[in-house]
Amino acid sequence: MPWSTYYLRNLGLLDGLPDAVGRALEQHVRVQAFTRRQVVFAQGAPAEAVYLLAEGMVELVRREGTRETILLVLTPGDFIGEPLEDPSQGHPVQARALEASIVCSIARPELEAILLAHPALAWRLLTWLSRNTSQAYTRIHALASCEVPEKLLGLLRHLADRHGVPTQEGLEIPVRLTQHELAALIGSCREAVSRGLKALRARGLISVNSRYITLRQPA
Q1: CA-to-CA distance for 145 and 14, rounded, in angstroms?
Q2: Structure confidence at residue 190 (pLDDT)
């Protein structure tokens, strides 16, 4: 089985669709591996392809001069960037791997031709986008209505649900996020995140080693 079809089926994107859809996609979908901190696409680069994260984690970063703002962390099954954005416009953000990641991409003209030939895939992509948007709104609402420790806890629970590795202490999050990155993700500052992490440790909700954070299981 071609790698592109393997990843698309593993994500569930092709569930229930005719085999012809998979055969059409496997001829055009490109599979790329990215190392930690490697750029998937640059801000301002032509939006000539549609990207889907198959494995790993990718952050969307808005750059203004020397300043960077992390807007969102994506997990497998998420589209990277806005797949329906005007291709004549450059990407409004930079996409960068947070860890070793696998990305599937397809040129827009090729995807458009496949969608015209297979309307069922078009509907699947729309429902997929709707699901991702709904999940993003839920996370944003949770972050907007809490203090820093609770915002951090909500973010860590989300990451643990998607990436957590069971250990004796709980769910270890195998993603190296700096305090600056955590702050950007919850709309706070590094100093507040440092205090928030200390508060969560004091409450026995997390443990932190030199590399990763572990979300501890309730006693």
Answers
A1: 36
A2: 84
